[in-house]
Design brief:
Blueprint: H1 4-20, E1 24-26, E2 34-40, E3 43-48, E4 52-56, E5 64-65, E6 75-81, E7 84-89, E8 93-97, E9 105-106, E10 116-122, E11 125-130, E12 133-137, E13 145-146, E14 156-162, E15 165-170, E16 174-178, E17 186-187, E18 197-203, E19 206-211, E20 214-218, E21 226-228, E22 265-271, E23 274-279, E24 283-287, E25 295-296, E26 306-312, E27 315-320, E28 325-329, H2 330-333, E29 348-349, E30 360-367, E31 371-378, E32 384-393, E33 396-403, E34 410-418, E35 421-429
Antiparallel strand pairs: 1-28, 2-3, 3-4, 4-5, 6-7, 7-8, 8-9, 10-11, 11-12, 12-13, 14-15, 15-16, 16-17, 18-19, 19-20, 20-21, 22-23, 23-24, 24-25, 26-27, 27-28, 29-30, 30-33, 31-32, 31-34, 34-35
């Protein structure tokens, strides 16, 4: 029979276990509403509406401000093209960094409206949505051309590239779609009862959008949208004091806001078969059935007024309207699901796992159709150090293990080229 002492220890362990399965606040600098997360050159970055860009080398445990050269530190959007980091600012246009945020330079001419709300990359093309139009660069940000022909509302809050389609969510005008890299646009807002669109993403062929009036889903490429109920996720009313439901940074009054604060779904993130939403007042909710039902995952989350959620480096990050960053491992809140037998619908290159790593890591990618594949690894000087895949491959999901036993510690880049698609990501080898 177990002694009383050992029984007491077991009870303590069982009782204490759930305490670790919750959100944890990270010591981010105070820089206003958190607006963006991304990974570049092995670092995690966060954008802030009042204080530029934060960088973390330990997956969010600690943060430092890296805004040297940013003429305007009101950062609303971040994007990565190969190893170049881009920041869209509210009033200063677009900036880029070639050294992981250590220094920043202004992008080239052509953006006539410097109030940038969103950024997106598609191979060699870079898109910037502003409060006064959508712009495209075909040369890494050195020159820009306005590309909003067909848009009836040009305040572009969100951008999403899904397959060969580019979606733009606007303030007051709903969603527009382009299938020719932004040359022409068509409205695709049927069913939306709120036309101020904050976020667009997808899981396979199902599209999700978050608005000031709630969340909507489309199963036909945006031709029709259906509202989705998040139930308790909208239970918390507006705070007595603190952040308002209006966009961070103070959008000009001329942009229509059909806002219903407790219903606002500011951000959506997808991980495998799980969908997460960040709400104004209701924190984070999760669905495992493409949005048909929801559960809250708010244990330990100290601020339910969220502007942003994102999945990066095997963690779910939440950025609040008050400027806090919260982190929670995905392993705590996601179950193990069987892989879908359906073929992928888009080309994708996923972040390697683990990252940082020593000495091996796994790289995954998806092909929606048969393609000639080239997957290589390069060092920080651009020298090829490994060939991971070559030749024709059928549509499907692939994983490959990268063994770096003979390489030195440092940042490495892996690049996938397939069927006209090209994407690079960075990983960190730590000895």
């Amino acid at each position: 029979m177990l002694s009383v002492k050992y029984i007491f220890v077991i009870v303590l362990l069982v009782a204490a276990a759930p305490l670790t399965a919750q959100w944890a606040s990270t010591p981010a600098p105070s820089g206003g509403t958190i607006t963006a997360f991304t990974v570049c050159r092995g670092f995690l970055f966060a954008g802030a509406a009042a204080d530029g860009v934060y960088r973390s080398s330990d997956n969010g445990t600690g943060w430092t401000v890296v805004s040297s050269g940013l003429a305007n530190t009101g950062v609303w959007a971040l994007a990565v093209r190969d190893t170049v980091l881009y920041a869209g600012t509210y009033g200063g246009g677009v900036f880029f960094s070639n050294d992981a945020g250590a220094t920043w330079s202004a992008a080239g001419d052509g953006i006539s409206n410097p109030y940038v709300l969103s950024l997106a990359c598609d191979g060699t093309r870079l898109y910037a949505g502003t409060i006064g139009g959508l712009f495209r660069s075909d040369d890494g940000g050195m020159g820009w051309v306005e590309m909003d022909n067909g848009m009836t509302t040009i305040a572009v809050r969100s951008l999403a590239i899904i397959g060969t389609s580019l979606y733009a969510g606007t303030y007051g005008g709903g969603i527009f779609v382009s299938t020719d890299q932004g040359d022409t646009w068509s409205a695709c807002s049927d069913g939306l009862t709120s036309l101020s669109v904050l976020n667009i993403t997808h899981m396979g062929t199902t599209l999700f959008t978050g608005t000031y009036g709630g969340m909507f889903r489309s199963t036909n490429a945006g031709a029709e949208w259906s509202p989705m109920s998040l139930d308790a996720s909208n239970s918390a009313g507006p705070p007595a004091a603190g952040p308002s439901a209006h966009p961070p940074g103070g959008i000009p009054a001329r942009i229509p806001l059909d806002i219903a604060a407790p219903k606002a779904v500011y951000s959506i993130a997808v991980s495998g078969t799980d969908v997460f939403v960040g709400t104004y007042g209701g924190g984070v909710h999760k669905s495992t059935d493409t949005g048909s039902s929801w559960t809250d995952v708010n244990a330990g989350l100290g601020d339910p007024y969220l502007n942003l959620i994102a999945v990066e480096n095997s963690c779910l990050f939440a950025g609040t309207l008050g400027g806090e960053i919260w982190r929670r491992p995905l392993s705590e809140i996601t179950g193990v699901s069987e892989a879908s037998n359906a073929p992928p619908t888009t080309f994708r290159l996923l972040q390697n796992f683990p990252n940082p790593f020593n000495p091996a890591t796994v790289i995954s990618y998806e092909l929606p159709r048969a393609s000639r594949v080239k997957l290589d690894v390069y060092d920080a000087l651009g020298r090829e150090v490994a060939i991971l895949a070559r030749g024709e491959q059928v549509a499907g999901s692939y994983t490959v293990q990268f063994q770096a036993g003979a390489l030195a510690s440092g940042v490495y880049v892996y690049r996938l080229q397939a069927g006209g698609f090209s994407r690079s990501r960075t990983m960190v080898l730590v000895r």
